[in-house]
Design a protein that fits this description.
Layout: E1 4-10, E2 25-26, E3 31-35, H1 42-49, E4 57-62, E5 65-66, H2 72-78, E6 79-82, H3 94-99, H4 114-126, H5 142-156, E7 160-164, H6 172-187, E8 191-195, H7 199-205, E9 208-212, E10 218-222, H8 223-226, H9 229-236, E11 240-245, E12 248-253
Parallel strand pairs: 3-8, 3-9, 6-7, 7-8
Antiparallel strand pairs: 1-2, 1-4, 4-5, 9-10, 11-12
Helix pairs in contact: 4-5
Length: 255
């Protein structure tokens, strides 16, 4: 069964015509990359798939069930969303923030137990922020906050990951660590969809790609079929040079 399916989905981007309806299927084990220029609707798409925004038309199904028919707790047990930027809602430590990922699995007023704490601490360690567990989130750098956000979703343990620029603010080492983590999640039977601006990350780590154009047009398919220089140059209105390193294509913008 598909982790997530869209049926003739049109996202609601203000002051834009419908464009092409999306009929996608995210299968267990797949890593999807969403590529497109600023304003193409990538974030709007992820928020629509997560149920945070209504579509203009069409349907989203999660594990075979209409997303609109599920309660937010049911959705949160199955789907995790990494936002592009995080906001401080209230003063909290890094450990307390990671434990928020366990809330969908707890009954009202139930406190986190030892197993929840172990999951959170393992996730913090995996994202290289375990040594910051007692720090207030407000004292973290942008990259540390991003890694904490991903650790929180790892603590949540959803079957479907939606990530909006998951490598935002990260240095090269932590970019590689995060992309390795997401592909590992897929290898364990989960599905991943992430918005990316870096073509080379998409070429190396994603097996399926969705190209979103500013006018609402879109195309999707396997990495091999989508990473065509002519299509990418039209997508970004930018000339590209290509090479191959370690078996993967590499793209460089030309002046």
């Amino acid at each position: 069964m598909s982790r997530l399916e869209t049926r003739e989905l049109v996202i609601d981007v203000p002051r834009r015509d419908d464009g092409r309806a999306l009929s996608l299927s995210l299968e267990p084990g797949q890593v999807w990359g969403v590529l497109g220029p600023n304003g193409a609707g990538k974030t709007t798409l992820l928020h629509t798939l997560a149920g945070l925004r209504p579509p203009r038309r069409g349907e989203v199904r999660l594990d075979g069930q209409p997303l609109a028919s599920l309660g937010r707790r049911q959705v949160a047990q199955r789907l995790g969303l990494v936002f592009q930027d995080s906001q401080d809602g209230f003063p909290a430590t890094v450990r307390e923030t990671a434990l928020i990922g366990r809330h969908p699995w707890l009954s009202p007023w139930q406190m986190e137990g030892g197993a929840d704490l172990r999951l959170a601490e393992a996730a913090l360690s995996r994202l290289d922020v375990g040594h910051l567990a007692d720090r207030l989130v407000s004292t973290l750098s942008g990259g540390e906050r991003q890694r904490l956000a991903i650790a929180t979703i790892l603590t949540q343990a959803p079957r479907l990951w939606l990530a909006d620029e998951p490598t935002n603010h990260l240095d090269l080492h932590h970019q590689t660590a995060v992309m390795s983590l997401l592909t590992e999640q897929a290898a364990q039977g989960r599905a991943v969809m992430m918005c990316l601006h870096d073509l080379n990350l998409a070429a190396r780590w994603c097996d399926q790609l969705l190209l979103m154009y500013p006018d609402g047009e879109a195309c999707w398919g396997s990495r091999e079929n989508m990473l065509v220089p002519e299509a990418l140059e039209r997508l970004y209105d930018q000339r590209l040079a290509t090479a191959e390193i370690d078996g993967a294509p590499v793209f460089v913008a030309l002046r």
